[in-house]
Design brief:
Elements (H helix, E strand, L loop, with lengths): L4 H19 L4 E2 L1 H8 L3 H9 L11 E2 H12 L5 E6 L3 H8 L2 H4 L2 E8 L7 E3 L2 E5 L3 H8 L3 E4 L3 H13 L4 E4 L12 E4 L2 H15 L1
Parallel strand pairs: 3-4, 3-7, 4-6, 7-8, 8-9
Antiparallel strand pairs: 1-2, 5-6
Helix pairs in contact: 1-4, 2-3, 7-8
């Protein structure tokens, strides 16, 4: 089943709320309440949940365990995806320490860095290797997703090493515009752009 970007951005939000309610012992979830908690349009939420294939019960809502399993399947959180991360500075270390990735089926199996003092150590349970073994190590562990948090001037070279090692998609946290084969998926997270948008919206409200 193919989804557009907006629904793919909402499904993990639903999953987070549902998991919290499941832990709290709640058995059913109302689409209207989910919408209220997340500040979303109830009609949009109802349409999204209808696409999960889970049927709700009048006056009760959707069975939470079934809804969780269905959303996990839709976004791929029910299967583990192996990833590698290059650039174990402050941002890279923070990403390695983020526990939410595992809940979405992402396992960062190895990290890489050019600085000797950051290599041959364990960061948040992830072994860190010298960047000169990135390609062979990535190929050996079978990772398909690369996370890029290196300095911008090194991003293209490191991305090419990842692709040579078998990476099929790159999550790019650098400002560099990567030039890679068309079959390689690239998702760029530009923190400066996000901040600029937020500051603009704040000024508009003032």
């Amino acid at each position: 089943m193919t989804f557009g970007t907006p629904i793919l951005e909402r499904l993990p939000l639903y999953l987070r709320v549902l998991r919290e309610w499941e832990v709290a012992g709640q058995a059913y979830a109302s689409g209207a309440v989910i919408a209220q908690v997340l500040g979303l349009d109830p009609i949009v939420v109802r349409k999204d949940l209808a696409r999960t294939g889970v049927r709700g019960t009048p006056r009760k809502g959707f069975p939470i365990p079934q809804l969780i399993r269905s959303i996990e399947r839709l976004i791929g959180a029910d299967t583990e995806m192996m990833a590698v991360l290059a650039g174990v500075g402050k941002l890279g270390s923070a990403l390695l320490s983020y526990p939410g990735f595992k809940k979405q089926g992402l396992r960062i199996a190895a990290g890489f860095d050019a600085a000797p003092e950051r290599c041959n150590v364990i960061v948040a349970g992830t072994p860190i290797f010298p960047v000169n073994v990135l390609t062979e190590t990535t190929h050996r562990i079978g990772a398909t997703l690369g996370i890029l948090t290196v300095p911008a001037e090194r991003a293209q070279r490191v991305a090419e090493q990842m692709v040579t090692g078998g990476i099929r998609a790159i999550w790019n946290f650098t400002p560099a515009q990567l030039e890679l084969p068309d079959e390689i998926l690239v998702q760029r997270e530009d923190l400066a752009v996000g901040l600029a948008v937020l500051l603009h919206r704040m000024r508009e409200r003032e």
